[in-house]
Design brief:
The structure is a homodimer.
Chain A (H helix, E strand, L loop, with lengths): L10 H9 L4 E2 H11 L8 H14 L2 E7 L5 E7 L1 H27 L1
Antiparallel strand pairs in A: 1-3, 2-3
Helix pairs in contact in A: 1-2, 1-4
Chain A binds a DNA duplex through helix 2, helix 3 and strand 3.
Chain lengths: ~110, ~110
Amino acid sequence: MAKNEMLPGTLGMLILRVLQPGPVHGYAIAQRIHALSKELLQVEEGSLYPALQRMLMKGWVRAEWGISETNRKVRFYKLTAAGRRQLQSEIEDFDRVLQGIQSVMSKA
Amino acid sequence: MAKNEMLPGTLGMLILRVLQPGPVHGYAIAQRIHALSKELLQVEEGSLYPALQRMLMKGWVRAEWGISETNRKVRFYKLTAAGRRQLQSEIEDFDRVLQGIQSVMSKA
DNA sequence: AGCAAAGGCATAGATAATCTAGGCCTAGAA
DNA sequence: TTCTAGGCCTAGATTATCTATGCCTTTGCT
C-alpha cells in the first residue's frame, strides 16, 4: 500500500469504529476516516459501499434512509449489538497482530 | 484476520526485514517470523513461497542453493540493493498508514 | 432558465494477496 | 525400515481492494 491506500483487512474495523458513537451515512464515513486520519487514509467509494454491504449481510450494521445535513437523501448506517462485539474482536485481533509485526520489525 | 493469521500487505515487509541481517533459507524465514513475533504470527508455506517468487521477480532478493544447518539442501534468500530500498519504503508506508489507523481508532 | 459542481449511492471487473490442500524429496531417529 | 521433521513448491479458491463507471439530486452561478 502506498500513498493514501488502505491497509487491507482494516477497513471493516475503521468503519465500525466510526459508527461507534452513532449513525453516520456512507459518504460521511469516508470523509470522517479521511479527516480523522489527518488525510493519511482515503477510502474509495468502490471499497466503502461493498464493505458496507458485507457488514449488512453479516448483521453488524443496519441501514436506514434519511436526510443528510446537506439536505440529500442518504443511507444512515448504525451499529448493531453484533457489530459492537465484532468491533471489539477486530480491535483485539489487530492489536495482537500489530504487536507481532512490531516485534519482528524491531528485533529481526 | 484472526488467531495466527497475517495482516495482508505486510508479509513482504516482514520477509525483507528478516533477510536484512543476512541470507536465510525459506523454511527458516517462516520460523523466525513465528519466533520473533512470540508465536503471534504464523506464515503458511503457501503464502511464503509465492511471496518469495514475487520478490525474486521484482529483483528484491536473490536466491542461492546451499546446505542448511540441519544438512538439507535449501535455498538461501539474500536482499539486493533494491530490496533494501524496498524495505525502507515499505516501512515508511506502513508507519504512515498505521498512524492514520491509530488516529481514527483513538479519536473517532 | 440553464448548467456545473459537489454530494451521494451503487455495481462490474480487474488485480492482488493470502490460505487450503495437496505433492514431492531427504536426513536422521527409533 | 519406517516414521517424523525439515524442506521446496504449485494449483485453486477466497477475499478485499481499487478503477472506472453510471445515475440521481441539490445548490449556486451566470
